[in-house]
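Researcher: Next sequence.
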Amino acid sequence: MITDPFTLVGDLLREFLIGLGLKAPEASGVIAFLGAGALATAVLVLCFLLIWAERKILARIQDRIGPNRVGPFGLLQTVADFAKLLTKEVVVPSGADKLLYFLAPPLAVMAVVGLWAVIPLAPNLVGTDINVALIYLISIGAIGTLAIMLAGWSSNNKYALLGAFRSVAMLISYEVPMVLALISVALGNPAARHAV
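Model: Next structure:
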C-alpha cells in the first residue's frame, strides 16, 4: 500500500516526538504547529517570488530592465522595498481615531492570511480540517470588507469615507454571487451538506 509522503513524514515525526517524552496530543499539537509554519513560509516565499516575477515581466513589457541591482538577478528588491516601507514616516490625519486607523491594515492582512487555514493544497495538506470550512471561508473573507470600511471611517475624512463606501459596495456586489455559488455547490454535494 502506497502512502503519501506527508502522512509518512507526519507519522515519523510523531513517533520521534513521543520518543522524546511528549504525549500523543502534545506531539500532534507540535506537528500541527510545524505544519502551519511550513505552509505559511511556503506561501510567503511564493509571494516573494511572484512579486519579483511580476516586476520583471512588466519591465520587459515596458522595455525596461526591471529590478537588477539588489541581490542576484534583483531577487532581494522586495526585501529592500519592505525595509524602505518600514522606515517611512507615519502620517496620521488630524482628528483620526488612531487606534482604529492603525487597526485597519492588520485586519485586512489577517483576512487574506486567514483564508489559507482551510484551503486544501493536497489530499492530506490542509491547515485545519473543520466541518464548517465553507462558512469560515465566507466569513473570514468578509473581514477585509470591514477593514476597508474601518480605514475610511476612522480617518475622519469625508472623501476617505465615500471611497470606503464605494469599495465596500463593489466588494459586496461580488460577495453575494460568490456566496450563492458556493452554497449551491455545497448543497449539491452530499458530503458537504453538514457544512452549511
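Model: The chain has two domains: 1-88, 89-196. The two ends are 35 Å apart (CA to CA).
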